[in-house]
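[job 4417] fold queue: 2 targets
>>> target A
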Amino acid sequence: MGDPLKITPICSRHRALNALMAPFGGWDMPIQYEGIIAEHGWCRSSASLFDICHMGEFLFEGDFEAGGLEDVFTFSVQTIPVGRSRYGFLLNEHGGIIDDLIVFRLSADLVIIVVNAATAPHDFTVIQERLRGGTFTDISADTAKLDIQGPLSRDVMVAAFGNKIAGIPYFRFITMNILGVEAIISRTGYTGELGYEIFLPTGKGAELWDLLLKDERVKPAGLGARDVLRLEVGYSLYGSDIDEETTPLEAGLEGFVNFDTPFVGKEALLRVREHGVKRCKVSFRVNSRRSPRHHYEIYMGDALAGHVTSGVFSPMLGCGIGIGIVDAGDYPPGTPLVICHERVKMDAEVCTLPFYSAGSLRN
């Protein structure tokens, strides 16, 4: 038998709401409450609350350059202004993605690193081995994280915690006292909608959940709706679209790699840039309401080109959508593809990302 599933401080609330629970990254997590389509629609039109307490959080304090943190990620930590965050990658020596993550700059010598749940223990070990100094601490067990997302999320947060929240720009954050404790409130998310990620002590997670759900504009949403929401706007999912065998160049994410800063895996990526990728990301729309699934095959004509890494039915587009990894080549929008699995065949065509661009993200 495997290790028992971990639970978040909100777990009892999910069960009280009769959520469908399932393992995810070693955690017992809510997949849906009233239904994926309904929860997706509520997030696109109002405000949805997600339990993201399973994510990992690390704290680094010290000199970023002398301590070695400046050399760890595919971006410069030193150049992140205080009060802002930056997205990028932790790579292996071959340029493969160990994890994608966000670093929040709290002060001149203090950052929080937010990583994926399933990779958190390995991430911590890898980062720690690359550091030369400073204080590096895993604060995941002490940190709760709730995400409120949707076009009405700002109104909800201002009603709950005051006008200070209204002025937070995209990819910036503030620290403030809520529920009697210091919390970080960040204008970030994973849905393509206006939203906030809230970090606070674990013991206050359930209280915050209860408070936000008292607002009739807010409903809970599970990981099922979250997956549809993120794919509609073209966000990658670790373990599906990106992994240790995939480089940011193959995944179409070179824009989050700063080649002017040193990092592990840089030399490997430079060699790939010089010789060209052997695989590349492709995004596509299915010409029906059928959903492509992970590992379905992608054909171009009669030739097997690659496989699907993520796929769902998109309520906003009314058809199946997906991302895949295929042999390097020219795939302009409109290129016909066939998605296959056993006796299933779906006609599709290449399109550009995002699939859906009418969200409230930057409102």
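>>> target B
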Amino acid sequence: MNTLPEWTDLRFFLELARAGTLSGASRRLEVEHTTVARRIDRLEAQLGSTLFDRSREGYELTEVGQALLPHAEAMEGAALAAAEQIGGAEVAAHGVVRLGVPEVFGVRVVAPLLARLLAQHPDLSIDLLNLPRFANLANREADLGVMLDPPTTGRYMVTRLASFHFYLYASPSYLAKHPPIRTQAHLAGHDFVDYVQDRLASRELSYLNELGFTPRRRICCSGMTAQLEAASLGMGLMMAPPYAIPSDGRLVRVLPGFQAERSFWLAAPTDLYRLRRVKVVWNLLRECAENHPDLFVEEGVGLSAS
């Protein structure tokens, strides 16, 4: 190899690695899919190596492609950081940040925070991905994300955002029609609202297993928004963190002695974490968690040591 590969070719390589298909990469890059194929062919010829295995299902990185990936990501991060610095980003954040968050957390907690942030940074834009699952940072679906399972491989900045408790709730109408709940043993005779068990975004969401018996799940939903509505309509008991519970009295706390503890983690690819626009969103979420513990644990209930 007599010459170094062009950065633009490496950018095409990155987007194809993330999208997995020519059509997906072409949409990200806003070019024709034939252009993507031509750039990849040129890069492979220049490097003298095959970077992708081609199949009907799409493009999958070869071992050589996997080895190239972190170097290309580092170059991308350096290019983004240089563009921000030249543009004066050390003073104010600008550009678009894609933030992936669990659906209810995004609506109830994150969205209200963004008004102040955007007022402070008029050149900043946010793509808020409220998802019934967790954002895939490996394929750059989001620049940073809040999740229950932090990345264990790859180059990421990861921090514990908050420990939080799931408590039992029910509607007053449900409680009026069913036997009283005074001990955990009484729960065995009640109906529950839960996640669809074979569609769990994380094993951490199987908190009903901590009841000590197999609950009678009368309705299961793929997301917490639907669960909240079902429980509010009296379809059964549900477990949820404090920030998810509406303040209109449609759901009330049941059996105060029972709870399940989990942790939210905040993560971002290392190269993106260095960007000013990503850092201001990161810091916003950290400050919210530190200043508003009542969103995660009801008053009078301390966090467990972890």
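[job 4417] complete. Note on B: Residues 90-301 form a domain with the D-Maltodextrin-Binding Protein; domain 2 fold (CATH 3.40.190.290).
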